[in-house]
Amino acid sequence: MKDMINNLDTSPEEFKELLDRTNELVLSRFQELDKRKAYHNIPQEERRQWFDEKLPEEGMNAFEILEETKTKVLDNATDNLGKHMYAYVMAGGTQISILGEQLAATINQNGGKWHLSPSIAEIEKRVVQWGADMIGYGSNVGGVLVSGGSAANLNGLTIARNIYFERKEIRKTGLFNTKPFTVYTSKEVHGCIDKSVDLLGIGTNHLRKIETNSDFTINLEALETKIKGDIANGFIPFCLVGNAGTVNTGAIDDLNALAELARKYSLWFHVDGAYGGLASTLDSVKNEYNGLDRADSVAIDFHKWLYQPFEVGCILVKNWDILKRAYFKKADYLDTKFEHQGRLDFNEHSFQLSRNSKALKVWMSIKGYGMKRLREMIQKDIDLTHYLSEQVEASSDFEIKARSHLAVSCFRYVGNFTSEKEIIRINELLIPALEKDGRVFITGTRLNGEFVLRACIINHRKQKEDIDYLLNVIREVAQTIEL
Ligand SMILES: Cc1ncc(COP(=O)(O)O)c(C=O)c1O
What we know:
- The protein is of the alpha/beta class.
- 42% of the residues lie in helices and 13% in strands.
- It is built from 15 helices and eleven strands.
- A hairpin with a 2-residue loop joins strand 10 and strand 11.
- The termini are far apart.
- Residues 88-89, 148-150, 153, 190, 192, 245-247, 272, 274-275, 301, 313 line the site of pyridoxal-5'-phosphate (PLP).
């Protein structure tokens, strides 16, 4: 018989050297964090050319791959760790999570089946309950770690649909021959709800986006009027989505009132807490979330306000049985008949079969930092956001557009401009100009149709001087723009 060729592994000695070099690269990311550019303005075409190569037939030296990765990826990465990132919701990651990710990849557990990842499965159950504890959602909850807020919301709406229509057997028959059913939320809702409604075959025409009040929370009267109107017109209202922190301004709907309406009209009550849910762990804002515990499902996102590196979100429901009813499908090759009782297989409670070990980094971080410190960080983010809003209000060349109880502030640069047209123009031009400059990374949004700069401050590394720096860089860049 021909000799078998060896596997892909290298010697322990060489592997150690590779790990040492990787560790040096990891460490270097934490040096001079405040001096690092937030964005490297390298033309897209140039980047494309760096990676424009044919499928390699022969392997290259692993040390050389590390060097190439350093120059082409690390050295010019958008600094999402950092101090000067304000766009979207970029929480910066934690050092303990880096250890967790590396160890998780090393043991390569498959979180779909208990016996393929025994300790990780138990850890995931624990992390799910800890997530529920943070937001006061109850004990013995069910839940699954997913890729992020979008996936958590898609899961929430999927569970809602499958459970709500269990009697109608729509999982066998599909949505054919049902009357259109309708989903309600505020017009400030995150786009992943639109995507979810689309993916679930409900149709975005049946997503009712309700007007908001001046503080961007859902208008309850308009909501009830719409539900009543839909019932009168033959629609089936089935799900109400509350926002526990909108992406634009951090607005938290009156969740108690929504829970009441959901009960009155027999609707599934889902809460999108991806952005703000975890802040409900703070005494200072807890009251804003009254009613969150009454939700049938809640999306939370650990790669936001638990500072985890991407990806890890979580869908929570009141018990495990709900998940099993929503997702279980029998398959001969997954049969658990011969296994010991008491094991929970995540593939029976969620969509994915093969799954990585997202829970490990979260578990290690929560244990390593402890909730006391994590709460302090969340509170610091909120305090820094108030500081930013105050600085904006106190200055003559900026104007505040939306303050929030959470960590997002919307404002405009006004400089010495007096005409509204010029103010709109300068703010629109600021976004690409700031990206080109690269010292800070901030994006915009629209509030009631008006374009504004939006700073999100969910990042445990930020300090007061970074906020001052942000405003100064915006000023400096604005002054270089010719209208
Ligand atoms: C309120 C809200 N929901 C959902 C999402 C989507 O989360 P992800 O980006 O993790 O998919 C976001 C992201 O910012 C959000 O702010």
